[in-house]
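Intended use. Records like the one below are meant for learning the mapping from a protein sequence to its folded structure. Do not use them to infer anything beyond what is encoded.
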Amino acid sequence: MLSARYFPYRLHFKFDAGTSRGVLKFKDSWFIEIWDNDAPEVIGMGECSLIEGLSPDRISDFEPKLKEVCSQINNLDESIQHSLVDFPAIRFGLETARLDLKTGGQKIFFPSEFTNGEDSIPINGLIWMGKYDEMLNRIRIKIDAGFRCLKMKIGAIAFDDELKLIQFIRQEFPPADLELRLDTNGAFEPDGAMKKLEQLANYHIHSIEQPIRQRQWEAMAELCRKSPIPIALDEELIGIRSSSELARMLQFIKPKYIIIKPSLTGGLTVANGFIQTAENNHVNWWVTSALESNIALNTIAQWVYTLKNPLPQGLGTGQLFSNNVDCPLRADQGRLYYQPECSWNPGNFSLKT
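Structure written out for the chain above:
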């Protein structure tokens, strides 16, 4: 007989993280713990991560649904499972908590050379939106830290200032030395997007994520046909409920890349289906965290490693928070490592005794 519980946790950013939708100072997660009453010392933990204004989960119904899931942990029939289609964050947290329990509660989900400490995952350095001087300083810090792939969020300050920042990067680091990705989070207007893409193309940009807001399929398809910079879809995947629906979208828009975020798409099983659908449609992909704590980041990193995607992944977010859980993950020189000699220190994350 299984038991389950959940509890909320608020993660605080070390600095104000700017996005095209505003400034993030904190974000909320809920943690699910599952254990067998006959062996209560083994606990499986999963994380349900929400980003206000982005996650598709219905916030008003979120905790009631979590309570229902935990109370019915031994009888998660098809009706309850189907109801989680509208709660991808809960689906992800439940799936990973079950997997953690099944594999012994040690947070080793996919044993590999990564979890043995013998190999690592290439990651991009994330440059948040902010004032010009703030962004310039963040760029220098990431480059000094050894990152050779930067993902720069744009769309919150004057476009000319963003061009100056990109010009600074390219003056110091040519494309052969530094890969540069851009993420607008849908900040461009469809009418003016192509002109901006043409200006940005002068700086040898690897790709640009979601140049216009999602659910504008015709405008996005036209941009993908004409853009001098390869386009990656990110927010466009939010709300896609099946691989068949994803296939229709990819066949219509024809992007170069898609960005997979398991917390926003409904878990690892769904993400695997999305990846297979992308590959079937000749669309490349990489995986990005959705500002989870190290609990979920660890799960995603172990899973990503098994996929053997050579592109830098968006998994360098563990150092963003001032109150993250201590764990064996470590980012260094543009790569993510798992240090098996380091122990987990859940602290306030685990309330069960």
